[in-house]
Amino acid sequence: MAIKTYKPYTPSRRFMSNLSSSDITAKASVRKLLVKLPVTSGRNNNGRITSRHKEGGAKKLYRVIDFKRNKYGIEGRVQAIEYDPYRNCRIALVSYKDGEKRYILQPNGLAVGDAVLAAEEGLDIRTGYAMKLRAIPIGTIVHNVELHPGAGGQIARSAGASMQIMGREGKYTILRMPSSEMRYILSECMATIGVVGNADFANISIGKAGRNRYLGVRPQTRGSAMNPVDHPHGGGEGKTGSSGHPVSPWGMPTKGYKTRRKKASDKLIISRRKK
Asked: Can you spell out the DSSP letters for 94-157?
């Protein structure tokens, strides 16, 4: 997919880039698969900000995606490739033989007219097909992988993401995560063959602050630019470095401080991601 650049008729436009929309084939979305989600803007039920630097952003409708891929044995055909404002990859509208329509994440190489099929086992290894991990050969690249059987895909869902099946041990399958972490996942979990498309999303340049405002991101102020009452890094004459290690506004160390809590699933991690 090509990356678009623009004539620099303003300073911010000079460095702005975007993805070409030539791959999008649909003019409109399927109405019954659209949902209006409430916008919290980082506030809790008391109206207090609990997640900073968030706002409403541009109006958008959520597309209901089929992450479970549980329509076993019924072949579908890709009817359209669409833009999804809630994710960085494209989505494919699949029309099944029984008349039902569903959205799935578009894998790289899946085009309009291609067949899509899901089953527990016994399918060919083709892009967009979905099977249980126990039925997929070792070495295969997969995405949209479940963590718990029947819960729907939770891992490797963003643009360009994928996982590789490295082996099997008992009731578990060994997978290499996008972060290079190796972990066990139950072999009864579903996965989709292929790599999530739109990998060039990582190469676009936002270009200006206003474009982040459309995405619901408010500006962030450096702690060193604040007063001491507002941030541990604040105060001092001119530009001064923070005394001691960098910390958050509430005193929690940042930049390398481990915050992960011990949990039962830690035993399923074979090796951590490489730093």
From this structure: EEETTS-EEEEE-BTT--TT-EE-B-SS-----TT-EEEGGGSPTT-EEESEESSTTS-EEES-
Note the pLDDT of residue 275: 67
Biggest CA-to-CA distance, the chain:
71
Rounded to whole angstroms, the Cα distance separating 85 from 79 reads: 19
SS3 state at 31: helix
CB within 8 Å of 210: residues ≥ 6 apart: 12
Residue 244: its pLDDT value, please?
85
Residue showing tokens 């085009």: 111
d(CA 247, CA 249): 7
The whole-angstrom distance between residue 195's C-alpha and the CA centroid of its chain comes to: 13
pLDDT score of 88: 94
- Which amino acid makes up residue 190? M
Query: According to DSSP H, which parts of the chain are helical?
Result: 209-214
> What is the rounded distance in angstroms from the CA atom of residue 217 to the CA atom of residue 210?
9
Q: How far is the C-alpha of 3 from the C-alpha of 5, rounded, in Å?
A: 7
pLDDT at 57: 93
- Which of the residues in the chain have pLDDT under 70? 1, 275
Q: What are phi and psi of 187, to 5 degrees?
A: -70, -15
First to last CA, the chain: 30
Is residue 112 a contact partner of residue 58, using CB atoms and an 8 Å limit? no
Only one residue has tokens 């290499």, namely 176
The whole-model pTM stands at: 0.89
At residue 212, what are phi and psi to the nearest 5 degrees? -70, -30
Within a 13 Å sphere around the CA of 161, how many CA atoms are in the beta-carbon half? 22
Distance CA(253)–CA(247), nearest Å, equals: 4
